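Re: your question from the hallway

Yes, I did run it. Sequences:
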Amino acid sequence: MTERRCKQIFAMLSDFLDGELPAKNCRELERHLEGCPPCIAYLESLRTTVEACRKYPAPRAPAPSKQVKAALLAAAKRSPRNK
Amino acid sequence: MNARVEQALTRLKSGKPEDVERALETLQEIVYGFGMKLCGVREDAEDTAQETLLRLARQLKDFPNARALAVWLYKVARSQCLMSRRKSKFAPAQMLSLDELMPKESGAAVPAIQAWKITPEEIVLNKELRGKLEDAVLSLPPHYRLVLILRDMEQLDTREVAQVMGISEETAKMRLHRARVSLRNALAGYVRRSQREDHD
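Structure:
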């Protein structure tokens, strides 16, 4: 993964995974991947990393404080729809 | 993410106490969870949630839609969290260079790049792996960490991430890629080691 082409491809991988790569670059990248197993392996491990972040479970939150609860209840009462 | 925020906003605006309480639970989960991922310290995340939601109470009428509320929430929570940095684990601010992050030559001294996989179940059930991921995220310099958390964990879109951070979408994408690559490299050694042990 040291060739100049690999380096250019490497910079595009996240946009590719997010579906945000322009069509022309997308075709270029796919053509390169057909003949470059290290880039394929890297892309797959990057995809796995992104999926791991997406599946990361939210930490368990404590209950909101009484102060916050009272403030939001009062604010919601004042909301224009409730007048 | 916006679906949860949208539901919370509708409930808040209904004004019914039971709806407001349910909305508050959702928003507390979102802001506290974000605070934990960004600061890594429970007390800081609690302070972040408390201060952010108190400010929300003062500005509730100003949100036309869920996108506006989501961007506002993360913006405020981000600055609250950064103010709590006395306790939190913050890596020094630095630039991540793509050249340095790129895997080097697959010569004799460096193992070739190998594919590896983490299943969604492993992330939920494997505490050690989750710990590695948390440590790797917390080790990222702050502005890379923030973009990764917002985009990949909170699942905002690129435009929303750019708005929360006050940067262009191009800069957000550039930082996201470097953050992902850095995280991937940090996880690679651990995942390969544990997969080797499973095969032995």
